Amino acid sequence: GFFGAMGRGIGGEYKLNATNTIGGVFTAALGTPIYSGTVFHQIRLPKSMLLRSSLSIVNDNYNKLNTYGASVQLTCPLLNGQYVTALVGAAATQHNYNNQTFLEPNGTPIITNDPGVTQLGLASRIGYSLNHKKISASINLDMATRNYYQSYSGKLNITASGQYIINKKYYLLGTAVFFMQDPRIYNRGILSPENKFSSGMYRVEAAGKMTNKITLFAGPMVETFSYSALKVNPLHGDTFYTHFNTISPKLSLRCSYKNNLSGFITPYAQVGYTIITRAEDSTIIPPTPFVPKPVFFNAKAGLNVMQGNWGLNIFYYMGPYSLST
Asked: What residues form DSSP beta bridges with 272?
């Protein structure tokens, strides 16, 4: 499913026979009384289909929330190297608190949101992959309703990638990632203020194999960012929505060096500009839309190391790293 393993713990699986496998994961969060677990059953069906079902539970003693979930996932091969995956999940979250459960530091009871209710949420995942001759591609879509479990609430995540082989030396790559979340998150009985966040990354690269170990990549990329939140004006107590949007066109360069069977060393660089397309906050004086500097130059250079079961990524960033703040 979408949730069930949070923090550190123990897990494993046992193969009952050639077609059936069972397993589970049980964890505890560090520093917070949150405990979770998932059990699953997986079966191989005729025509290479794979069916997986799971049950999950999260016992959040900090926020007094219990969540119970179930999911079913089917992976089905099609013709010509194509695969389709579909998952459907549901979760019920019990609010095990009332207006006497949580206290202010001075002992005053906190008036909570939605005490004693049970909220039902749905989630789904759809995936498609293709590997045929010179073309390979994949796309995955994850969705969850706003009443789904806490940190997964109100999510939409789309990832897509593709590759076209020109010849033995050169090929083209495309990558697109879009993420959006409009959540309902409770913190000790209080529903967090409305906020909506989205980001995207879109990149096209030309790749060339210089040797059997060295491959060069270069191409344009665009990053997008959008954030809207509900704020309270400290002077009047009125509520307002703030908005902040940017778009960042860049040039991406990287070199991949294969130093062993499962290891890569990749230096990379990204250079471009970040353009503020919208910046509004009525709680700030002046209340009119403000853009102190609409365009910012930024550059990022780093080294990504992947070696078997460990990895390392170090980088240097020049320019404002987080314009949203």
From this structure: 250, 298
pTM, two decimal places? 0.86
- SS3 for 178-222 is EEEECCCCEECCEECCCEEEEEEEEEEEEEEECCCCEEEEEEEEE
> How do strand 170-181 and strand 8-15 relate by DSSP bridges?
unpaired
Element holding 245 (H helix, E strand): strand 239-260
Contacts of 29 (CB under 8 A, 6+ apart): 6, 7, 35, 36
Dump pLDDT digits (tens) for 180-198. Answer: 999 999 999 999 888 899 9
Two structure tokens written together for 298: 């930024």
pLDDT in tens, 54-109: 999 999 999 999 999 999 999 999 888 899 999 999 999 999 999 999 999 999 99
214-232 and 239-260 beta bridge pairing: antiparallel
Nearest Cα neighbor of 131 from 155, 168, 162 is 162
CA 261 to CA 19: how far, in whole Å?
31
